[in-house]
């Protein structure tokens, strides 16, 4: 997720009456209040921080902790590190983890980068701010306390929090002749900046828990870049080379943790027959390729996002739901049959500021995502899981892009998330 352009969403939209009927039978199975006494983390109990915590590992298409299956029931909250720098806002990290835990969520995906600018972690190439690194230590330590696993993203395609355009600026400032943000993927100097940063984070020892990041079971996976695209090379070769090099680099420093790319999931030139599944013709030529990118030897998890609200310029609620089901089913079957790896739907969400949708539809959408994943899992599909974009505690609404889910404000959404937790803990351990 980055700055999504919502201007194309201000369409005059007529709510199809039928989708209301579609919503009722599905949503009526949710209890109207949170289930009272289930525990998602049966295994953990009330363990202290010092107690050993098994890593999440991969066995073929499934995730495991020790001998138990692990299924991701996750949420995105990208701003944790930045809020943790400031003593005034630090408590929000604890708030969001507590709230998530209460709903039975077990995994958080968040940014472990902030390049240049305000509260930068990477102030300039090879120069990292210790205060911000300690804020990241705090995020990891709070996650561990709450028994929440983290997927940590190491760079942004978008210019929010710096990202690859900041790397290009640094390169230009040092005298390199760079003309496009896509140079991020091929320029040797920029690649050395990225590698320096990755090495600094992975080899850090947490000042609060005293655990090295690369040995910390709190971390479920490293994500090498959020939502990469390299439209200047639609063949996909440039991005493919970058993914292969950087995922291998991460593994060379940290062979323990799982690695994912951070892709949106568009099919590309390696599978022309699947490109009709893409939301439009353009998404097939942005330099990404779901199948080929995930065949990079150091990649463990398939990553996919779900944003038909933005990807389909003209869609109603029924189109939206149909797209979600097809998109998920095809990617799950590919993860199992072609890639032999678990699949993480690492972002799915909807803006309730979008006139076409409200919180009722958001729940139908969430239920569709959860239901589609579970049905597949129960019939031999790949493991992995789904990560909502995005969970907010109360009092951070000024950061809301319309996609924020404040569970305290939407009891029925809380019930829906809790019910998914219960289904997962009934079907598999967490
Ligand atoms: C890993 O998966 C294989 C094949 O599905 C299975 O036979 C094996 O028992 C699994 N290993 C563990 C530790 O569960
Ligand atoms: C990635 O960044 C480029 C600009 O640098 C932008 O054109 C592209 O849309 C961004 N990615 C996504 C997911 O849209």
Automatic annotation (TrEMBL):
<dbReference type="GO" id="GO:0000272">
    <property type="term" value="P:polysaccharide catabolic process"/>
</dbReference>
<keyword id="KW-0378">Hydrolase</keyword>
<dbReference type="Pfam" id="PF26410">
    <property type="entry name" value="GH5_mannosidase"/>
</dbReference>
<feature type="transmembrane region" description="Helical">
    <location>
        <begin position="9"/>
        <end position="30"/>
    </location>
</feature>
<dbReference type="InterPro" id="IPR001547">
    <property type="entry name" value="Glyco_hydro_5"/>
</dbReference>
<dbReference type="GO" id="GO:0016985">
    <property type="term" value="F:mannan endo-1,4-beta-mannosidase activity"/>
</dbReference>
<dbReference type="InterPro" id="IPR017853">
    <property type="entry name" value="GH"/>
</dbReference>
<comment type="similarity">
    <text>Belongs to the glycosyl hydrolase 5 (cellulase A) family.</text>
</comment>
<keyword id="KW-0326">Glycosidase</keyword>
<protein>
    <recommendedName>
        <fullName>mannan endo-1,4-beta-mannosidase</fullName>
        <ecNumber>3.2.1.78</ecNumber>
    </recommendedName>
</protein>
<dbReference type="InterPro" id="IPR018087">
    <property type="entry name" value="Glyco_hydro_5_CS"/>
</dbReference>
<dbReference type="InterPro" id="IPR045053">
    <property type="entry name" value="MAN-like"/>
</dbReference>
<keyword id="KW-0472">Membrane</keyword>
<feature type="domain" description="Glycoside hydrolase family 5">
    <location>
        <begin position="56"/>
        <end position="387"/>
    </location>
</feature>
<keyword id="KW-0812">Transmembrane</keyword>
<keyword id="KW-1133">Transmembrane helix</keyword>
